[in-house]
Amino acid sequence: MEKQVVIITGASSGMGYEAAKRFNEKGWIVYAGARRVERMKELETLGIHTMLLDVTNTDSNQNLVDTVIKEQGQIDVLINNAGYGEYGPTEEISMKKARAQLDVNLFAAAELANMVIPIMRKQKSGRIVNISSTGGDQYTPLGAWYYASKAALQQWSDTLDLELRNFGIRSVIVQPGGTRTEWAKVTLEKIKENLAPLSPYKKMVDALEGLTSRQQSGRFANMAATPADLAKVFYKAATDKRPKWRYFHSFPDRMLTLIGRHFPRSYRAILNQFMMKRFSQ
User: Fold this and answer.
1) Residue 175, SS3?
2) pLDDT score, position 281
3) Which pLDDT belongs to residue 186?
4) Per-residue pLDDT, 271
5) pLDDT at residue 176, as a whole number
6) Which candidate in 12, 133, 149, 157 is catalytic?
7) Sheet-wide strand order for 29-34
8) Which among 21, 87, 139, 150 is annotated as catalytic?
9) Is 132 an active-site residue?
10) What pLDDT is attached to residue 212?
11) 127 phi and psi, to 5 degrees?
12) 29 forms bridges with which residues in the sheet?
């Protein structure tokens, strides 16, 4: 059987890194792209193709796609995993940073998809797996632009899926929830970076930092998914014969997004009861 080819962006750490390893273990030809190439040395030793990739640069994206086609002649799966969270008080995040958030989390995924779709259409098969978040259907204070980018990614992906089905191509969404990665630490660093001197939101930020610390050290810490757990979800989303609309790691992740999506008033009530009181103390 001919080996299948997958492109994974944001593969220098976390979910993307583990996904590259899993696809490789399953016998796929893997192209792993990221800005921090030095962090993918181990992937190289496993036989994975690693490439410098800046998803906000059109030439960099095109070089990746062209290289894969030149060397393999096909692209079976694109996993749009690259992304980050520009957290902080909405009022205090510059429009430049807000645009950069959308550029990485939405427009980069769209550009790469546009580059591989003609190839997949010619093959009459292919799958585009877009990594969103439970935040695509939920929100909390201090994450407006991140949540907006993920909600937009989902609407874009769903529309794309409807347009591509007749060509044998599917566009699906993976929605990770809490993860045992550097995400929480990096998020808090971003919030503090975006916090203005003498900010009126400092109490809110302090409360979130305390809440996050308790979650990481409390009984819920071990419930969060590991990068390896999510790599399995990525693989399932890429290989299911009958792709689903959404993919989740756990039942709680699925339920929380359903509440946020279908019962917005209830979700807002939960926020007011369990979070906003803490932030206003």
Assistant:
1) coil
2) 52
3) 78
4) 78
5) 94
6) 12
7) 49-52, 29-34, 5-9, 77-80, 126-131, 169-174, 246-247
8) 150
9) yes
10) 64
11) -145, 140
12) 5
Q: How far apart are CA 274 and CA 271, in angstroms?
A: 5
Which residue in the list 17, 31, 87, 146 is annotated as catalytic?
A: 146
Q: Tokens 């990746």 correspond to what residue?
A: 64
**Residue in this structure with the two tokens 């709680």, named with its chain if needed:** 252
Question: Are 155 and 100 within 8 A, CB to CB?
Answer: no
Set 17, 31, 132, 133: catalytic member: 132
* Annotated catalytic residue 280: no
pLDDT beneath 50: ranges in the chain: none
- The encoded tokens of residue 167 equal 């060509």
Sequence-distant (6+) residues with CB within 8 A of 60 are 52, 53, 54
**Secondary structure of residue 244 in the 3-state scheme:** coil
* 8 Å CB contact between 215 and 205: no
Q: How would you class 40 by CB atoms within 10 Å of its CB: exposed for 0-12, middle for 13-18, buried for 19 or more?
A: buried
Maximum Cα–Cα distance across the chain: 63
Assess whether 139 carries a catalytic annotation: no
* DSSP-based three-state secondary structure for 12: coil
d(CA 129, CA 235): 9
Say whether 150 is catalytic.
Answer: yes
